[in-house]
């Protein structure tokens, strides 16, 4: 293994397909990465062959096997060591008897054993215990399913590096050219980067940026590979399409059966928290009153029981412009299409009719409603574009936004590979990953 004046950067290849992983690793190596990790998904997909092939392709670099071992410590360390790994990562949350066996096997086969602190109850104390059990590396790891909740590892890196004096400290989870240097300053000896490298259109450039940031001590700002917090939801939802969000929500969330009253010559994209209205066939009183309850940036969502009598029209849409409302969704009918198109606020409805109802005043504003097949609570996020409309529950909005961005970033890399002369079926090895039952 090499000597460094900055911590080694380890590319975590969390992909399913070995040829793609090797290609991405080669590009990352051109940018200065020196540790190559067979990520757990790659190991589960390709087995120990992933490690053998990485060793073959990168004979002089450090090969890491992220085994996430929980049991059979000695056997799993032996397997990975014999396949060519220099460093084997196991789970720190596992039993001490497993850790001891893994450490002994590591010494026997001349490899380093690292423990991942993911899901440990008291990570700082467990790190100290693991160090006493003889592990070589402690990995402070915020996993992929934790990062979407906007957790980052830096604070914990600091605490663990103060507590542990012998083991090397690795940091993983959401590190990029902006944050890697913070992890280094907090005490990390090894910087692990997955997504920002394997999702990059240019892993070489991304790796170079990360390494430059470590060398200069200055973060390099990036618009990609970031996680968004509760206050940044609008920015986050504007980056992604409703298709990305649908994938992130496992195909739930879509409103069904609505037709847009929009000018398709202009790009269509809106996102905002819902103000909800429930009323009855053609009764337009509560929908119109709700306009005054809205703040700028809101989306007005109206449950008119799928009525074919209009509860919405041009004057109401114009009032939305005054208030800064970004879209109106009606489970019912609307009218004055020409005016709506001229005003330019997207309106979606089940049907269009010239016939309006009466302002009777039945219903409620800002209660839970059912609209186009989806329950909508006040404050839920409504996102719309040319593909349709998605409802994201308020309580899950940050997680879904971050997951949708991950979907988009993965697609960006696939797009890059197609643009290099490939096809989708080949890039994602479609035949292998069809459902087999
Ligand atoms: O170890 C990882 C995860 O458990 C999947 O195997 C990741 O490599 C690690 O979280 C780093 O990922 P990024 O946040 O994408 O850099």
UniProtKB/TrEMBL annotation:
Organism: Methanococcus vannielii (strain ATCC 35089 / DSM 1224 / JCM 13029 / OCM 148 / SB)
Protein name: 3-hexulose-6-phosphate synthase
Keyword flag Lyase: yes
SUPFAM superfamilies: Ribulose-phoshate binding barrel, RraA-like
GO biological process annotation, one example: L-ascorbic acid catabolic process
The keyword Lyase appears for this protein: yes
Keywords for this protein: Carbohydrate metabolism, Lyase
GO function terms (MF aspect): 3-dehydro-L-gulonate-6-phosphate decarboxylase activity; hexulose-6-phosphate synthase activity; orotidine-5'-phosphate decarboxylase activity
Short name of any one Pfam family annotated for the protein: OMPdecase
Catalytic activity: D-ribulose 5-phosphate + formaldehyde = D-arabino-hex-3-ulose 6-phosphate
Family: Belongs to the HPS/KGPDC family. HPS subfamily.
Alphabetical list of SMART domains matching this protein: OMPdecase (SM00934)
E.C. number: 4.1.2.43
Domain Orotidine 5'-phosphate decarboxylase, residue spans: 8-210
């Amino acid at each position: 293994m090499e000597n460094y004046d900055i911590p080694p950067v380890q590319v975590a290849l969390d992909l399913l397909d070995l040829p793609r992983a090797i290609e991405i690793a080669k590009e990352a190596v051109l940018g200065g990465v020196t540790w190559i990790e067979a990520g757990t998904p790659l190991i589960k997909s390709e087995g120990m062959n992933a490690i053998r092939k990485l060793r073959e392709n990168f004979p002089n670099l450090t090969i890491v096997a992220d085994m996430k071992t929980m049991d059979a410590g000695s056997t799993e360390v032996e397997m990975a060591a014999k396949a060519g790994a220099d460093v084997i990562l196991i789970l720190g949350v596992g039993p001490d008897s497993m850790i001891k066996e893994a450490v002994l096997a590591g010494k026997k086969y001349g490899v380093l054993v690292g423990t991942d602190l993911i899901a440990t109850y008291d990570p700082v104390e467990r790190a100290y215990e693991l160090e006493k059990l003889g592990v070589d590396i402690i990995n402070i790891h915020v996993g992929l399913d934790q990062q979407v909740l906007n957790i980052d590892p830096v604070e914990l890196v600091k605490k663990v590096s103060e507590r542990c004096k012998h083991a090397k400290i690795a940091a993983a989870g959401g590190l990029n050219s902006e944050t890697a240097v913070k992890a280094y300053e907090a005490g990390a000896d090894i910087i692990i980067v997955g997504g920002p490298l394997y999702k990059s259109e240019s892993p070489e450039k991304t790796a170079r940026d990360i390494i430059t940031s470590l060398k200069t001590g200055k973060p390099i700002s990036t618009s990609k590979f970031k996680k968004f917090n509760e206050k940044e939801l609008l920015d986050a939802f504007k980056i992604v399409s409703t298709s990305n969000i649908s994938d992130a929500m496992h195909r739930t969330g879509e409103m069904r059966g609505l037709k847009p009253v929009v000018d398709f010559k202009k790009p269509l994209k809106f996102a905002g928290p819902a103000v909800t209205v429930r009323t009855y066939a053609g009764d337009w009183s509560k929908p119109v009153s709700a306009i005054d309850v809205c703040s700028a940036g809101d989306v007005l969502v109206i449950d008119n029981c799928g009525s074919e009598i209009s509860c919405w029209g041009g004057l109401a849409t114009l009032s939305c412009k005054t208030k800064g409302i970004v879209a109106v969704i009606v489970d019912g009918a609307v009218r004055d299409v020409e005016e709506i198109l001229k005003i330019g606020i997207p309106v979606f409805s089940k049907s269009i009719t010239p016939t309006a109802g009466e302002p009777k005043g039945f219903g409620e504003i800002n209660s839970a409603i059912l609209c186009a097949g989806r329950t909508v609570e006040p404050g839920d996020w409504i996102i719309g574009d040319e593909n349709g409309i998605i409802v994201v529950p308020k309580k899950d909005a940050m997680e879904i936004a971050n997951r949708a961005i991950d979907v988009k970033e993965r697609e960006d890399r696939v797009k890059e590979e197609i643009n290099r002369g490939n096809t989708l079926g080949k890039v994602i090895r479609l035949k292998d990953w069809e459902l087999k039952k």
